[in-house]
């Protein structure tokens, strides 16, 4: 999206998701991580 002129906004709570909007569990920061 950003390559086509869109905007990407990230924060300290941003994460990654796949094409079905499912989060990658390994991206959980700090103590929440299993």
TrEMBL record:
Q: Name one GO biological process term.
A: carbohydrate metabolic process
Pfam families in the record: Glyco_hydro_42M (PF08532)
**Example of a GO MF term:** beta-galactosidase activity
Ranges for domain Beta-galactosidase trimerisation come to 2-31
| Signal peptide positions (record) | none
**TM ranges:** none
Coiled-coil segments: none
Q: Which Gene3D superfamilies does the record match to this protein?
A: 3.40.50.880
Q: Which domain of life is it from?
A: Bacteria
Q: What is this protein called?
A: Beta-galactosidase trimerisation domain-containing protein
> Source species, please?
Streptomyces afghaniensis 772
